[in-house]
Amino acid sequence: MGRPYDAEKQYELALAANPNDADIHYNYGLLLFELGLPEKAKEQYKFALAADPKHSATHYSYGLFLSEMGLPERAEKHYKFALEADPRHLATH
Q1: What average pLDDT score do residues 72-79 get?
Q2: Do 12 and 32 contact (CB within 8 A), yes or no?
Q3: Cα–Cα distance, 24 to 79 (Å, whole number)
Q4: How many angstroms from the chain centroid is the CA of residue 25?
Q5: pLDDT of 11-42, one tens digit each?
Q6: In this structure, what are the phi and psi dihedrals at residue 78, rounded to the nearest 5 degrees?
Q7: 4-85: which CATH topology?
Q8: How far apart are CA 93 and CA 76, in angstroms?
Q9: Residue 34 and residue 92: Cα distance in Å, rounded?
């Protein structure tokens, strides 16, 4: 990753302009998780799902997050939501 803290600032600016954009929240959550900020990532995943409850990529990534946090049952729930939203979501399979 090139300049993650510059990217973080750009996500904050994008969210200021589009606070209900699920894609922005999702991608920002991915960045925050990669930066070692899991609680902030979790918050962004939840914002993404509030904006779009059928956002399959967020359900999948949140499932991965929950799995890494030692919560496999909750992770499985989100994997199932991801597949319900998009049965062709290959990463979830």
Answers
A1: 96
A2: no
A3: 20
A4: 7
A5: 999 999 999 999 999 999 999 999 999 999 99
A6: -75, -30
A7: 1.25.40
A8: 11
A9: 19
Best CA proximity match to 66, nearest among 76, 56, 57 = 76
User: For residues 74 and 45, what is the distance between their CA atoms, to the nearest angstrom?
Assistant: 14
In angstroms, the CA 65 to CA 69 distance is: 6
The amino acid at 38: P
- The predicted-structure confidence for 55-75, as pLDDT tens digits, reads as follows 999 999 999 999 999 999 999
Query: DSSP assignment, residue 73?
Result: H
Contact 23, 53 (CB under 8 A): no
Per DSSP, the three-state class of 92 is coil
Kindly list the domain boundaries of the chain, sorted by start residue. 4-85
Residue 90 banded pLDDT, cuts 50, 70, 90: confident
Q: Around Cβ 88, how many Cβ atoms within 10 Å?
A: 8
